[in-house]
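Reviewers of the previous submission asked for a worked example of the structure-prediction workflow described in the proposal, so we include one complete record here. The input consisted solely of the amino acid sequence. No template or homolog information was supplied to the procedure at any stage.
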Amino acid sequence: MEKILVSACLLGEKCRYDGESKPNQNVIDILSQYECVKVCPEVMGGLPTPRKPSEIACGRVKMVDGTDVTYEYKLGAELALAKAREQGCKIAVLKARSPSCGKGLVYDGTHTAALTKGDGVTARLLMDNGITVLDETEIEKLRK
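From that input alone, the workflow returned the following structure tokens.
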């Protein structure tokens, strides 16, 4: 069975900044045909759950209170990449708009819910290393 790296929050794990999850039934249904390798790069990088919301601006990741958490995001991304490699994952399904996992659009760093073009730290690292990244809005591409 093919292994796919997946944002743990999409599968119901309570690891988001607000202490909740974002289970997506369509993702869960389609990924039942695969072996899921769950990751939460933010937690893997050492951030607690819950935690203050973070956004990306000018190449840095900062919490709403200004705390720079770029190191933790980069560490989590490296650990997620290592796990993908270790498990042989060639595809990742990640949480849209997240400063870790977003692909194509992320929150712009103003903490006003404004979006800007860009990728989350983990999504970018995975793509730069040859892993195909989809977000939950693209999950139909994996339907068998």
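Residues 37 and 83 are 8 Å apart (CA to CA). We consider this example representative of the routine output the project will generate in years two and three.
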